[in-house]
Amino acid sequence: MFELIGEHGHEQLSLWSEPETGYRGVVAIHNTILGPALGGTRMWAYENDLEALIDVLRLSRGMTYKAAVAGLNLGGGKSVIVADPNVKDRADIFRAHGRHVQSMCGRYITAEDVGTSPSDMEFVREETEYVVGLAGRSGDPSPVTALGVYRGMQACAKTRWGSDSLSGKTVTVQGVGHVGYHLCKHMHDEGALLVVTDIEDDRIKRVVDEFGATAVGADEIYGVEADIFAPCALGAIINDDTLKVLKVEIVAGAANNVLDEERHGDVLHERGILYAPDYAVNAGGLINVNAEVEGWDLERSHKKASEIYDTIIKIVQIADDQGIPTYRAADRLAEDRIAEAAARKKKRK
Questions:
Q1: Quick one: which H or E segment has residue 15?
Q2: How many CA atoms lie within 13 A of 157 on its CB side?
């Protein structure tokens, strides 16, 4: 366990169990140099505890880099609850999670994520003040996340084709839930042609009916010839198998940890496929909940999310100047900001 924590410099890992409520939770804090660690709570039926541990460590590290690249004064953290996300009786589980978060005394602030909702966060709020994404405040981050991905996609188009217009471009979208739906709306409104898939038939029907999308099977989406592939479901879908059939020029989507391994980012680079690093392009959700921390209004959140366009342009420029893949360029941009903040803190001491 300590080897896993130390591999990417995590500061803290906390495990909390309440058998009487069915709560089994893990909180990972990666880095707090820029500010308190903020990251959502994922509820998932992991196959085993090691899978849950690796997931929370990867996700929390991604949040550090996401906040740094987005220019937010936040650190990176994440939590997972090992349970069926469809469980009906949720109050006791999420109140237990609130007690877990409270025990960290403000080092970690939570929010909703995969398998959780703003209503779940209300239960967390009964036990701790360190929670954002509440109903009636910033609420559902999906629209702001989708806006950021859309702007990042436009930036990719600008660098690849000389114009940021998506009109007439074919975009394959994997996952058309909350974020994927709003992203499809943005692209449809601009005149993009959509090819979509999802594990839920009703979600597919909605985007087919509203946006004239073409539906394909879950495994077919990777081999569709298109201009852009937008992964908006779970991660690790750019891998040895999918790379064999991928026929696009750009990969830009809302999913976290899109690359199964870093070497797959190298393969994208070698093949001339422009990859918008996931934590840079999908930072709109973090920007949305940061609005609660900072007291921003919705207009300012939208403006900040739109700046993802400039961030992607900068990342691509670094990658071109240094001859490196975009995922490495994004890491360098984040690490430089963290190092500068650490140097300032050391100087003050």
A1: strand 12-18
A2: 21
Look up residue 13 and give its amino acid: L
What would the two tokens of residue 194 be? 């959509």
Structure tokens at 88: 């009906």
State the DSSP code for 144.
H
Q: What is the pLDDT of residues 207-245, one digit of tens each?
A: 999 999 999 999 999 999 999 999 999 889 999 999 999
Q: Is 169 a catalytic residue?
A: no
- Higher-pLDDT residue of 297 and 349 is 297
Considering 78, 303, 304, 347, which one is annotated as catalytic?
Answer: 78
Domains, the chain, in order of start with CATH, read 2-63+74-125 (3.40.50.10860), 142-283+310-333 (3.40.50.720)
164: three-class secondary structure by DSSP: coil
CB atoms within 10 A of CB 48: 8
pLDDT in tens, 322-336: 999 999 999 999 999
